Amino acid sequence: MNAFRLYILNVNAILYQLVLLIFVVQFSNIQAQTQMKIPPYLQKGDTVAILATARKNIDDNLKPAIDLLHSWGLKVVIGKTIGLDDNQLAGTDMQRAEDFQHQMDDPNIKAIWCVRGGYGTVRMIDLLDFTQFKKNPKWIIGFSDVTVIHSYLNQLNIASIHGAMPVTVAKASPETIESLRKALFGESLNYEMPFDAANRLGNAKGEIVGGNLSILYSLMGSKTQIDCKGKILFIEDIDEYLYHIDRMMMSLKRCGCFDGLSALIVGGMTKMRDNDIPWGKNANQIIEDVTKGYSFPVLYNFPAGHFHDNRALIFGKKVTLELNTKTSTLTFE
């Protein structure tokens, strides 16, 4: 009987160790799946592809961007979508998807720089196969309509760069250009701004996500709807009616985007429009009104968006935001 009990105890001990091992393996797999992947930073001699995912680019306007990349010691490949003309778009959805797919899968291409925004990226995003990209990620760069890709990559736990695009280089501020260079080459990226009385003071840490407010709003209910839990959300927009800013902010609120949000960063709200009967608040006041019931810090007038001073943000990276009565700082880990 004693020998039998000893046998049972040994079996139980082995089963316990087996269950524990399975738990550890599963937990490690979950961690690996949720850990943000940072694409390799660029080095001199690397090649960057310029292509279009949305609006057409048929003008001879890429020399400033090409010269900039060359000055950084990088090579340039021009995608097949540059110069294509399909009404507003840079070729058909399939043509834009094929160009993007080719640059994603080409091991010689180390970064993809989207030439401009507009509209059309959402029409091609589901035609793409990210199988190889997930194994060997590379930097995707752009803003505005490229928010569609940023949100998709965030679901894949792959970092990307919200920053200037080739057509904006000629008029971009020196700070814009330098911030993009730092982001691409893996140098320290930190921002310090003077105190703004509109800010809601406080400190926060978390993964930075977001992009163009209109695009984030349009993605709600889709498989790439932005996940805001525990994160720092950046938003910017251009050429919108003020009442529509209110509508979009209310929609984000109602879908739970602000529940558990660590902080909100508001970039440029550029060229806002109003009706003959005024809405009564500017964009920042609308945002404050919608979010006033929350305690998370809010930074207004961050230099990023549809204007010449469009500082680079690395979506998916963890940042620290500190807002006090002297300065406002955003520091990337």
What does this structure look like?
The protein is of the alpha/beta class and 333 residues long. The chain contains ten helices and 13 strands. It has helices at 2-34, 63-71, 93-105, 121-124, 131-135, 147-155, 174-185, 213-218, 242-254, 283-291; strands spanning 47-51, 75-78, 109-114, 139-142, 160-162, 190-194, 202-212, 232-238, 263-270, 298-299, 313-315, 318-323, 327-332. The chain has a seven-stranded mixed sheet with strand order 6-13-12-7-8-9-10. A six-stranded mixed sheet has the order 2-1-3-4-5-11, sandwiched between helices. Helix 10 (283-291) links the parallel strand 9 and strand 10. Residues 19-33 have low confidence and may be disordered.
Walk me through the topology:
Elements: H1 2-34, E1 47-51, H2 63-71, E2 75-78, H3 93-105, E3 109-114, H4 121-124, H5 131-135, E4 139-142, H6 147-155, E5 160-162, H7 174-185, E6 190-194, E7 202-212, H8 213-218, E8 232-238, H9 242-254, E9 263-270, H10 283-291, E10 298-299, E11 313-315, E12 318-323, E13 327-332
Parallel strand pairs: 1-2, 1-3, 3-4, 4-5, 7-8, 8-9, 9-10
Antiparallel strand pairs: 5-11, 6-13, 7-12, 12-13
Helix pairs in contact: 9-10
